[in-house]
Amino acid sequence: MENPNTKEAYDIIQEGFDKKAMIIILSKCHVEYEGRARSVLESGDRLILIKKDGTFAIHQELNLDPVNWQAPGCKNKVSSTDEGILLTSKKIKPNEEIKVFLDEIYNITYYNCVDTKDLEIRGYEKHMVDLAWEKPDIIEKGFRPTRREYQTENGFIDLMGTDANETLMILEFKSRKAGMNAVKQLKRYVDCFKDNKDFVRGIIVAPDITVNALEELESLQMEFIPMEAPLNLIKEDISTLDSFF
Amino acid sequence: MENPNTKEAYDIIQEGFDKKAMIIILSKCHVEYEGRARSVLESGDRLILIKKDGTFAIHQELNLDPVNWQAPGCKNKVSSTDEGILLTSKKIKPNEEIKVFLDEIYNITYYNCVDTKDLEIRGYEKHMVDLAWEKPDIIEKGFRPTRREYQTENGFIDLMGTDANETLMILEFKSRKAGMNAVKQLKRYVDCFKDNKDFVRGIIVAPDITVNALEELESLQMEFIPMEAPLNLIKEDISTLDSFF
DNA sequence: CCATTAATGTCGATG
DNA sequence: CATCGACGTTAATGG
User: Fold this and answer.
1) H or E element, residue A78
2) Residue closest to C13, CA→C1'?
3) What is the pTM of this model?
């Protein structure tokens, strides 16, 4: 609905709530937020997006993130005041509230979405592990991979195997420059095998590694093996895509 | 526009791009993403939000975050194919692309937002101000706070007061290391009192301050008072925030 | 521009 | 419900 008056706006927004629809409001508005932080946003044109799970987001004309928002599970309400339409979004634990004062309403739309599909993500790490699995020499001569995605109490180990001396190897793959967090992660995996009397090799496989991370890695007697992420392969290798699509 | 056909949809979207408007599309669509990772989203009803800075977001009916997105600075295009309308959003460094195939279009809106206001966050600083308000000696012996959140043409002054000599003090609080921007901000506030014949003390209160900022601050005859931010209090003691509403 | 760190992070999994 | 860890984290800040 275009340029509704206050009553029309109230009715259609309430209707949207009742029908558990996605509500989209284009409006000049000002906003107050109070909760984990506290903020004020003076009047300007924004997009307000309300979802049936309670999600509430206010978008300015720039930037990816909403300027103000509420997480799923919030109680949203519309009310008609002397000043016009007021939207409130409340959450408990932690106690948070957004108040949006609609100073001028340009457009209100609601739609009941039918959407049963979930996003399917395939990271690049998987492709790197694929490669190492199929051509172990890429990692090092004599490497024999044995397990993928081995579950430990500290997470999934990307790839395990043994070297030419039958020493256990634990490999953590990163598609981008590995940082300190990768080292910590690998250390946690290696720690799972501490009780073994035998030494375990911890290895980060990534296109690059930060200086700090490399120092820390070496001080922990662990290793870094450079390997390019096959970013470009994906578009070229249609066959692998087929298995995915 | 409601339920546009392919040509109408193409035209209105192109128009939105040309006018650098915010474009909102309600549509059944399927999405492919390829970049740092790779993903596929099969057909379903979603909201597509495109901003003039290149921001591109696809929202499902649930959750706060978009299911697929592109950051500001992306090149967005609309094209008409045999299959219908195709939206593409490209970014370089890192190379990323989203393709959205509009299978059925319910609604297209674009609007040229007028929005000059920035969000003012006053969360953590408030707790520091609370503390200084209740225990002025923390700032300095003889300090008497008089006003909080005093509004000037240049924004809100966190805290004002007088010292033992009745000299006006303007305090700017930062919850983290103060930088040059904090100094500039404080200077703007102090400038509001330039016409006073009396000297005004400008003071930054923060856990720390950068070297550059401290130099600049002292050259402006302003001061720095170290104070730890009560970050931990915030999550525990939400009740103190009640005073705001 | 790179590296580091905070965020009203969000979100999913798990105990 | 709370905690923990990953994320195409993003976004801001200092160097």
Assistant:
1) strand A75-81
2) A155
3) 0.82
